[in-house]
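Q: Can I see a sequence and its folded structure?
A: Here is a first one.
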Amino acid sequence: QDTVLGICCSVVLLSLRALGRSNCSKPIKGKSSSAIQRLTNRLSTRGLFILDKIIWIICTARNAIVVIICLLLAWCLDPQLHSCKTDPEECVFSLTGNIESGLPAFQPPPFYIPANSADNGTSPDQDVSFGGMVSKLGSGIIIITIIGILEVIAVGKAFGKGDPVDASQEMVALGMCNILGSFVQAMPTTGSFSRTAVNSESGVKTSLGGLYTGVLVILCLVFLMPYCAFIPKATLAAVIMTAVIFSVEYHVVKPMWQSKRVDLIPGLVCFIVGLFYELDMGIYCGMCIHIVIVLYHTARPGVVVEVRKVPETTQQYLSICPNQGIVFPSVSYMRNLISKAGLKQGNSHLPVVIDCSYITQVDFTAAEGFHAMLGDFSSRCQSVYWMSPSQTLLDTLRPVVGDHLRVITGPGEMLEQELCNAMDDTSIPLMSPVSV
């Protein structure tokens, strides 16, 4: 029975969704029109307007209409009406069951769990202090908080339709909701993909929809809880499934595959884990894999290494141009790459020019790595120059590198310094610029 009811509800909901997006009750504009649209346009202008509004109201409120109809159906079909509240699984349909009505009392949140506080036997036999609760949860406190924040931001980005999401604002709102909710014994507040999808499919456009939802929840808690016990679970599942299914952005897979395939990995892992395990863990796994990818690109920056000539001369030099900042994860990689390039492509004698145009930042570990690298180059009498570094870069490198830091503004200045060094040190072959 539940399967049949769920399928029927899904068909009705999808049909009403398609009806609301069609033009069957709209005035005909242009030459193309369907048979149903031509039929409805036989009505007068006012009649067509009324029909359009009726269809709009039915299609917008389709979730509530289907839930109410199925509630009445379950209430009428079950021969033992009162037992369904206490034994919902024994009815014709699997029902929501009895939920205690009334509003919770406004009081400070308890910082301990009293012994035997629950009637179902799930509470401990002894009082549990706040420290005991914290030690019991352990690292789960941090993990749950991070997952809650990620879920809220992910919901905002998924339904924001390209609008920017202020993560700080979302975290402040989430924190305030949980702080205030603790005074009315509320469950922890997080983002909900299913609830947001249902709101989106119901026509909600702004955050004011949360106010209406809250008012309806309060009315249900006070007046309607005895009747809500007869809502079939299959109906609620159909409402959620038909709303969430249209949130899947399958159209981005093809351009992402054609653009950068590695970006599909976090999404695929998130989808599989969320489908077969838990949605929260799916978000967490996708986040972890994306962090690994970002760290990999940070640890392996792109570097252009090529032998160039100083303009208007035949003098060659080894140009090295990283495409991003150099920080701790990429220090060893950059040091080895520059050292090997100086030996192989620079033949251990060509001057090395590091183009700092794209190096936006370096940290202390990178400065120490460069200091050790410059010592290796100095031991084989191979010069290293830093071309056009920013002041921030100089402020970080100079205290560590010291006199080994040779700054130039262009290859011509490098050639002048090489000539001066050659004249001061007779062991270095004199390089003279030759015009071409």
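Q: Show me another, different protein.
A: A second, unrelated one:
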Amino acid sequence: DTLNIRYLLTILLNHGAKINLTNDLSDPHSILTSLKRIQYKPESLQLIFNAAEKVDIVDRITHEVFAGLWEADLTLDLLHRSRNPFSLLQCTRICIRTAMGHRCGQYVRHLPLPVRLKQYLLFQ
């Protein structure tokens, strides 16, 4: 089941899906409300955290939404990502994927880059 979710997420991401982790809980399709459904699938959560192009979480809201649902370290990871800038590697991935648009999964495979870098860009 975890592999299926992670596989589907990877397909969506490689066809241009964007992930933003924000505290806009008024949106019924907010990624934060969806995260509660996969809280016990760490590989899928990690993929979502790593693929997020924007992380803007208010501590109080995060604790209200996830109180008692997540292990403390998952909430701390999310808060850490919200408080700290992306690494240069993450920024580079976001820029390359944004420039390639919804067909980034196809285009990345043809770039003259090392295999490891292509895997990183494709969340593999």
